[in-house]
Write a structure and sequence with these properties.
The protein has about 625 residues and is an alpha/beta fold. Helix content is about 50%, strand content about 10%. The protein contains 23 helices and 13 strands.
């Protein structure tokens, strides 16, 4: 559904139509009332002082004989204008404070968040009164007071919404592509939280209107000779027993205007959030030292990792879910990583792609990709290297794309960001990449939104995004999750075709041993944040030496599995990364474990034949995989 169609649908509803009509009338009155009734509102008639409501003066007259009803109409412009100004200030300040954790990083972001939390603890009215005293009585001071008083609540909402969206896969994909923090925020995060922000801003305008009326009523807002609804209400209350209409009319105006903003805010929630600005033409960038596009001469290793550790702060000390991972991926090679959930597979891939930020800590003795050390501080050149030479295919195809942007636009962003292509050239390349991953009618599909794609098509389009550059390595994190068997085969066949056609290396993460056996040359088995076995896939069934590897294989049913017997399972639970057991982490679940296993952790040792294993009893383990045992 298009942006205009969604708006038309909202305006067809009774609430939407009524709210739009009421708010439109208020805004129209704010513009026209000073022109139509301004002279009558200012006309002084000493013969008509403090007259009650009548046919000539519908709300009576004030102490100078001026028509109160005309003054209420004219005051619409002042009241609405000041309320919108205060709302704009609150929204601007709230956006700056709410997005600070994303723009400034965790350290300064935590300071801003703590400040916002303290401010939110105070009632908004109390803050407004405090600021009004600080800035002084008058319209300008009231705008600053109400705007700054409303900023903390809006900032808290922005923090909550942006933190939710910032953890999704399409944001991680944009970061892998090298998109900067500001652009990620503007193009990928804010459009996805637009609905609640606009709704709250609109409702906030109604609240600002009421707050202004309250400050003016107390004498802290608009000062004479200017007037707004709050000031007129205060003057009317002084003679309420003689002329109730003098207080009733401005009070009714405040209520109706606040109701208009609130109703419109509820209605606009259904019509906002899908439109984004057209992308600007790629800007020229200053030259920067290039990053080596290939590995050092004489080496076919694309990725070389030694002693990789990923840790996060915990209540009892650092939690280290990845503990000393060492691996390498060669050109054109497909390496599989397999293990139970929580074994550290995805965190290893995210660390390689530089997607782990503070408070997470990534340490490694060596972390090289295409001959460049990824442990160095991030630069534009490093972002370009990762954005064009490393493709990331995330686990859930439903969250791999920004739902508010068209597929072609999202793919084209890589070419615009890193290749300097203009809009037309980038879109043409996006269409070509969609064609390369077998998306039917690619030009038409490029104009569609992610929800118009099936799960398998979204996954193939995600692979197409990685092909926008010239990827040397594709990191596929559970690329067949939530896909049916036939779609799984298409995705795996596509990865194999890319490998054969372009010599692309693939690092495939999966729970499915069958998938690993089908497409990988080599398999790494991970448990409790470590690689416990590394061997060729062809030898997996017959030469697996680690008890955990054999248990994983035994737990996979096939057509020969006896359906009358219970399925094999691995006893116990995976190790807790916050409190790993002493010695071998698999010892509490291992049938071969002894006291030596429980006290000393085995190293990952190579046997000289291209295999590595971390087990004290690897030589005692049976070679074959016994069906029905775990």
């Amino acid at each position: 559904m298009t942006w205009r169609a969604r708006w038309r649908g909202v305006l067809r509803t009774p609430v939407g139509a009524s709210a739009a009509a009421l708010l439109g009338a208020v805004l129209l009155l704010a513009v026209l009332a000073p022109l139509l009734w301004g002279a009558r509102a200012e006309a002084v008639d000493t013969a008509q002082i403090l007259r009650p409501a009548s046919g000539a003066h519908w709300a009576g007259t004030d102490a100078l004989g001026r028509d109160i009803f005309s003054r209420v109409l004219v005051a619409t412009g002042t009241s609405v204008r000041l309320a919108l100004a205060a709302t704009a200030l609150a929204v601007l300040a709230g956006l700056l404070l709410g997005t600070a954790p994303l723009l400034l990083g965790p350290r300064w972001g935590r300071l801003v968040t703590a400040t916002v939390n303290v401010a939110v603890a105070f009632p908004g009215l109390l803050l407004a009164l405090s600021f009004a005293v600080i800035f002084g009585a008058g319209a300008r001071g009231a705008v600053l007071a109400i705007g700054l008083a409303g900023a903390p609540a809006f900032a808290r909402l922005v923090q909550t919404l942006t933190a939710t969206v910032a953890g999704r896969d399409f944001v991680a994909a944009a970061r892998v592509a090298g998109v900067g923090r500001v652009r990620v925020l503007v193009r990928h995060i804010l459009p996805n939280v637009g609905e609640p922000l606009v709704v709250n801003a609109t409702i906030g305008a109604g609240g600002a209107l009421l707050a202004f009326a309250g400050l003016s009523f107390l004498g802290l807002g608009v000062q004479a000779p200017e007037y707004d609804w709050g000031r007129l209400l205060g003057e009317g209350l002084n003679g309420i027993y003689l002329n109730p209409a003098a207080a009733l009319v401005p009070g009714t105006a405040v209520v109706l205007a606040g109701l208009a903003f609130n109703l419109f805010g509820e209605a606009v929630a259904k019509g906002f959030g899908v439109h984004t600005a057209a992308p600007r033409r790629a800007r020229r960038r200053s030259p920067e030292p290039s990053v080596p596009a290939v590995a050092p001469a004489g080496s076919d290793v694309l990725l070389h990792v030694e002693e990789l550790r990923v840790s996060f702060p915990g209540p009892a000390g650092p939690v280290t879910p990845v503990r000393g991972v060492s691996l390498s991926v060669r050109r054109g090679e497909t390496v599989g990583i397999v293990g139970e959930s929580g074994s550290g597979k995805s965190l290893t891939a995210l660390a390689v792609a530089r997607l782990i930020e503070e408070p997470g800590l990534v340490e490694a003795r060596r972390l090289d990709f295409l001959g460049h050390d990824l442990r160095e501080a991030p630069t534009r050149a490093v972002r370009r290297l990762l954005g064009t030479s490393l493709a990331m295919v995330f686990q859930d195809p439903a969250t791999s794309f920004n739902p508010t942007r068209r597929i072609g636009t999202q793919l084209a962003e890589v070419a615009r960001e890193h290749l300097g292509a203009d809009r037309r050239a980038a879109l043409d390349r996006a269409v070509d990449r969609l064609r390369a991953v077998h998306i039917p009618a690619p030009r038409r599909r490029a104009r569609q939104f992610p929800h118009e794609f099936s799960g398998g098509m979204r996954q193939r389009a995600m692979i197409g995004m990685g092909l926008m550059g010239s990827p040397q390595l594709i990191v596929a994190d559970e690329p067949t999750t939530a896909l049916d068997v036939t779609v799984q085969q298409r995705v795996l066949r596509l990865l194999a075709e890319l490998r054969a056609a372009h010599g692309v290396a693939i690092l495939l993460i999966s729970h499915d041993m069958g998938v690993i056996e089908q497409v990988c040359d080599r398999v790494l088995v991970m448990y409790a944040g470590r690689i416990v076995e590394d061997l060729p896939t062809a030898e997996l069934r017959d030469a697996a030496r680690h008890p955990y590897t054999r248990a994983l294989l035994a737990a996979v049913p096939d057509l020969s599995t006896d359906r009358d017997e219970p399925l094999p399972v691995i006893p116990g639970r995976p190790a807790d990364p916050a409190a790993p057991p002493p010695g071998c982490a698999f010892a509490p679940r291992c049938p071969l474990a002894d006291d030596h296993c429980r006290s000393s952790d085995p190293a990952l040792v190579a046997d000289g034949a291209g295999r590595r294993v971390a087990c004290w009893h690897a030589d005692r383990s049976p070679v074959g995989v016994a069906k029905g045992s775990a």
